[in-house]
Amino acid sequence: MEGITEGVNNLNITDSASANKKNRIQVSNTKKPLFFYVNLTKRYMQQHNEVELSALGMAIATVVTITEILKNNGLAVEKKIMTSTVDMREETGGRPVPKAKIEILLGKTEKFDELMAAATEELMDNEEQS
To answer: Fewest CB within a 10 Å sphere: which of 7, 29, 75, 129?
Structure first.
């Protein structure tokens, strides 16, 4: 768990197409585990009050799962959901293949800060008992 938290703390995501969006997380279902993205989303919401989760193709299910976990824990509300298709080229010179895309804008709930403080306190108590 500490390794994941440390990775989240040191993570710097940049993307030339969305460099102006500091609160966007592009989710992959092959690169990182689900709860890496859940924890990263919480961290982004602490910093920016809202976060945009974005995914293509098979990673769409991962974005929906992240959203549902945060909603069910009382941490996030959906502000906007956008779907579209983008043309992706499989190889150089190949013909474009349409891929499904989803973008979900999440905002903090009124109890977000209170719930995060309680979770941090519980984590500290558990560490002291170990």
So the answer is: 129
DSSP 3-state of 102:
strand
Length of the chain: 130
Tokens 């903090």 identify what position? Answer: 108
Tokens 């919401």, located at residue: 45
DSSP E strands in 7-95: the ranges are 24-26, 50-56, 76-89
Q: How far apart are CA 116 and CA 30, in angstroms?
A: 28
Q: How far apart are CA 11 and CA 102, in angstroms?
A: 23
pLDDT tens digits, 40-76: 999 999 999 999 999 999 999 999 999 999 999 999 9
The 10 Å Cβ neighbour count of residue 112 is 20
Give the number of other Cβ atoms within 10 Å of residue 48's Cβ.
14
With 0-12 / 13-18 / 19 or more C-beta atoms within 10 angstroms meaning exposed / middle / buried, residue 51 is buried
